[in-house]
Design brief:
With about 190 residues, this protein is an alpha/beta fold. The chain has a single domain, classed as Rossmann fold. About 30% of the residues lie in helices and about 25% in strands. It is built from six helices and seven strands, in the order E-E-H-E-E-H-E-H-H-E-H-E-H. The chain has a seven-stranded mixed beta sheet with strand order 1-3-4-2-5-6-7, sandwiched between helices. Helix 5 links the parallel strand 6 and strand 7. The longest helix is centred in the C-terminal third of the chain and has 23 residues. The two termini are about 25 Å apart. Belongs to the small GTPase superfamily. Rab family. Keywords: Nucleotide-binding. This is Ras family protein.
């Protein structure tokens, strides 16, 4: 599939809300900013509550609008997560490949997503900070194996150099377009 990232689409074939979750400091905001073309910032303030960007793509002639939600990873914002999960059809669960605890928390995030979701949610597990390969604490095969156990897709990225970011967003969009064929009403956000 050869994707395009147009700046504007009217009446997309698919409009979907996706949410990024994970421990504070794993790079959720940096991944989203990198995807949005804003580059990499070595110092990013922790997200307070949530924020979102709209991303427009064209895949095989189908227009897609993704509302990409960035959520706070701090425990004090946990009670707000169900509100942000409302109508999300995909969750990208991010961990830091140099931080084993962030990887071990994936199960907690999966449970939070399942408990707070109002519609079926596709899961994507993303190990971030590939640029810190020398400090890796979680092997690629561990992330892939866990993702397979929970029925999620698996990717690794580097928000610092952009590696894998585009691939993740395209994989989410392609998956949601495929799902849409059988579940149109559950995948289209209210307008």
């Amino acid at each position: 599939m050869s994707p395009a990232f147009p700046s504007q689409i009217t009446k997309p074939d698919l409009r979907a809300k996706i949410i990024f979750v994970g421990r504070s400091g794993v790079g959720k905001t940096s991944i989203i900013l990198r995807h949005d073309g804003q580059g990499f910032y070595s110092k990013v303030s922790p997200t307070l509550g949530a924020s979102f960007i709209s991303s427009f793509l064209v895949l095989d002639g189908k227009s897609v609008e993704l509302q990409i939600w960035d959520t706070a990873g701090q425990e004090r914002y946990a009670s707000m997560l169900p509100m942000y999960l409302r109508n999300a059809v995909a969750a990208v669960i991010v961990y830091d490949i140099t931080d084993r605890e962030s990887f071990q928390e994936i199960k907690k995030w999966v449970n939070e997503v399942k408990r707070g979701s109002t519609v079926p949610v596709s899961l994507f597990v993303v190990g971030n900070k590939l640029d810190l390969e020398n400090a890796r604490a979680v092997q690629c095969h561990e992330g892939a194996q866990y993702a397979e156990q929970i029925g999620a897709a698996f990717h690794e990225t580097s928000a610092m150099n952009g590696e894998g970011i585009r691939k993740v967003i395209i994989a989410v969009a392609e998956h949601l377009l495929e799902r849409q064929n059988g579940e149109r009403n559950e995948l289209t956000m209210p307008t």
